[in-house]
Specification:
single chain, 299 residues, alpha/beta, 12 helices, 12% strand
Length: 299
């Protein structure tokens, strides 16, 4: 197996734009994708956590994927988010999507059930045995309620050639370091935390699947590419420039913060689906100020 360079660099977990009444805003999605391409992203993720995938119907998911692939037009790889805490349902969903135009699957570690490490391994084993595209594991304990250990990640990486990477959002640099030290040569560790992208790449990570990249693809691409080239002066400058924006995107939850930023930039609206709600006016004002301080918008 050779390292799949399609998933190096800046990946962006796309928001799903909604119209004020809640329907998917496909015009907004097209503007968002053009913003990504112009900003130099390396791949996009459809229907991840940031895409509010858990609030989409099966019909909406199929249409959203088709429209996303159509808007991308083969200019960058497309990763499809398919995950859940019911293994059989995840496998069923994988069989229902039209995979033409899909380059990989991002699948979150099962949440809520709190499986053991053996349960997590068996869940991914079942997916790996049927998946028609490479698999990127996704560890995000803050959302799932359980951590996938380095040992489980490494076991999956060694046992299944189509398990090519992990998006790590545990914020545990020690855990990530153990993965990087002991992983198969071509297995990739991708940051799942915008604020930790620079240190993760410095340790040997290959990039990030980003939230802030929705709004600031060019700026964050500069950071990521500089870090990958070893240009730490540029990467550090961009990291410090954006760190307050990144922090504010998450203070009232994701994707409320990033959708507020996208509204400020005129790319799409800030509508989210319940149980999520828009960020408060106070947070919105702080976010606008941070974007102005980063020289992205003008006061």
């Amino acid at each position: 197996m050779c390292m799949d360079d399609r998933f190096r660099g800046l990946g962006v977990a796309l928001v799903t734009p909604f119209l004020p009444k809640g329907n998917i805003d496909y015009a907004g999605l097209e503007r968002l994708i053009e913003h990504q391409i112009a900003g130099g992203v390396d791949h996009v993720v459809s229907m991840g956590t940031t895409g509010e995938s858990v609030t989409l119907t099966k019909t909406e998911k199929k249409e959203l994927l088709a429209q996303t692939i159509g808007f991308v037009r083969n200019r960058v790889p497309v990763v499809l988010g398919v995950g859940g805490n019911n293994t059989a349902e995840v496998i069923e969903a994988l069989g229902e999507f039209d995979m033409d135009g899909v380059d990989a699957i991002l699948s979150v570690s099962p949440y809520y059930n709190k499986p053991t490490q053996e349960g997590i391994y068996q869940h991914y084993k079942a997916i790996a045995q049927v998946a028609l595209r490479p698999i990127i594991l996704y560890n995000v304990p803050g959302r799932t309620g359980s951590n996938m250990t380095a040992e489980t990640t490494l076991r999956l990486a060694r046992d299944f050639k189509n398990v090519i990477a992990i998006k790590e959002a545990s914020a545990n640099l020690d855990q990530m370091g153990r993965i990087l030290k002991h992983k198969p040569k071509d297995f990739m560790l991708i940051s799942g935390d915008d604020a930790l992208t620079l240190p993760i790449i410095a340790m040997g990570g290959v990039g990030v699947i980003s939230v802030v990249g929705n709004a600031l693809p060019q700026e964050f691409s500069t950071l990521v590419n500089a870090a990958l080239k070893g240009d730490l002066d540029t990467a550090r400058r961009e990291h410090l420039r954006l760190i307050e924006v990144i922090d504010l995107l998450f203070v009232e939850g994701n994707p409320g913060g990033i959708k507020e930023a996208l509204k400020m930039l005129g790319i799409c609206g800030n509508t989210v689906r319940l149980p999520l709600v828009n960020v408060s006016e106070a947070t919105s004002k702080k976010l606008y100020q941070a974007l102005a301080d980063a020289e992205v918008v003008k006061l």
